[in-house]
Write the structure tokens for this entry.
Amino acid sequence: QVQLVQSGAEVKKPGASLKVSCKVSGYSVTELSIHWVRQAPQKGLEWMGGFDPEDGETIYAQKFQGRVTMTEDTSTDTAYMVVSSLRSEDTAIYFCAIYADRSDAFDIWGQGTMVTVSS
Amino acid sequence: DIVMTQSPLSLPVIPGEAASISCRSSQSLLHTNGYNFVHWYLQKPGQSPQLLIYVGSNRASGVPDRFSGSGSGTDFTLKISRVEAEDVGVYYCMQGLQTPFTFGPGTKVDIK
């Protein structure tokens, strides 16, 4: 059974960068399409981007283009997301999730990583 | 971008009774493969979202059969035939037809 375990909570200052990890167990990260979704406090879900296996490339929501980078380390089966130039509006819970072929949906989610951006 | 709307935004329910949530998209979610690319998630308090229904009407693994999804094109419905206390949380519809994937604002279901 595939599982996703994310890194712990972070507190960052405005302008800093953030790196969140998402460790895959039960599968190789190369066999999966990992996406990232965030949720601001008391708000809804916002898709940030993820790996498109059809193109073999990572796609980003336009609002995050240039400020967010999603990568994978195949040696440790871990996915990473880096957010640069943090601002207070980036305060949110960040989730990694698997986009599954069998459902065309996000069917496995990580536990979430709380990120607080504050001076 | 495809805009997803939901109604109601708040839904008090009585255990044992039926409940229904509506979701509408700003454009058709009907894929060329014949499936509607709308999915339903439940986020229980303090938890990650969990997939309930995918491509309109298919229950995800382990989801009780009291949950059902229907609809086509731009109008979709999630029904709970007999609400149980464990069903409280926020329900989201999401379109997976095209990027950026977008979610509805959520419907908060709690016990009346």
